[in-house]
Amino acid sequence: MSGSLIQLLVLAGIALFLVFKLRDVLGTRGGFEPEGRPAPAQPIRPVPAPDAQPEPDDIDDHAEPGSPIATALRAMQAVEPGFAVTPFLNGARQAYEMILMAFERGDLSDVRAFLAPAVAEALDSVIADRQSRGLTTEAQFLGSRDTALQAASFDPQTGLAELTVRFVGELIVATRDASGEVVEGDPKAARKQRDIWTFARHMGQDDPNWQLVATG
């Protein structure tokens, strides 16, 4: 057997040995990860350089710089540095759907904590009136078409903040009488509903929840 052939066989044997060792160490991966494999580690965020500027807040995205709204928002942020408008609006949009649907269903139990006493009393009155007349409402929320900050105020003496939000929602609503006949709305057609709601909260306190204090 020639020396070159022997050398070739030796190299092939070494390559085969390395393949098996790598397979033992790294494992194999097919189209799906096998069950029980631990989740990959989360990426490590880079540490900012000492002279890096902090990320800008979002107040200017929702209010004209220097306007009364922006001034009120800055005052809120001075009391609570973690306050930002976008997360508030996201929460307000969710609250809008929850409260609106609870009102249409005639049961405020799940949302009463988010209602100021005067607002809860007004909604309860409407619900009681519907029930006394034997009316029932069917409602389906299709989505929010617009959620925008319309006004803001802050009282530095009491820490009371008020934010007014304009909502445009799309929903299907139909009210039926005791016999099941539709007396208002359409169970097959969507409609747009525009509301202006004001939420309030004392900034700097432990309770992070805003309450609905006015509707329009």
Global Rg: 30 Å
Model regions low in confidence, pLDDT < 50 over at least 5 residues:
14-56
Structural class: alpha+beta
Order of helices and strands: HHHHHEEEEE
Strand percentage: 25-35%
> What's the total number of strands?
5
What is the count of DSSP helices, taking H or I runs of 4+ residues? 5
Rounded mean pLDDT is 80
List the helices and strands and how they pair.
Layout: H1 3-26, H2 59-62, H3 68-79, H4 85-105, H5 117-132, E1 136-155, E2 160-176, E3 182-185, E4 191-202, E5 211-215
Antiparallel strand pairs: 1-2, 2-3, 2-4, 4-5
Question: What does this 3D model show about the protein?
Answer:
It is a single chain. With 216 residues, this protein is α+β, with helices and mostly antiparallel strands. 36% of the residues lie in helices and 27% in strands. Strands 1, 2, 3, 4 and 5 form a five-stranded antiparallel β-sheet that branches. A hairpin with a 5-residue loop joins strand 2 and strand 3 (182-185). The longest helix has 24 residues, at 3-26.
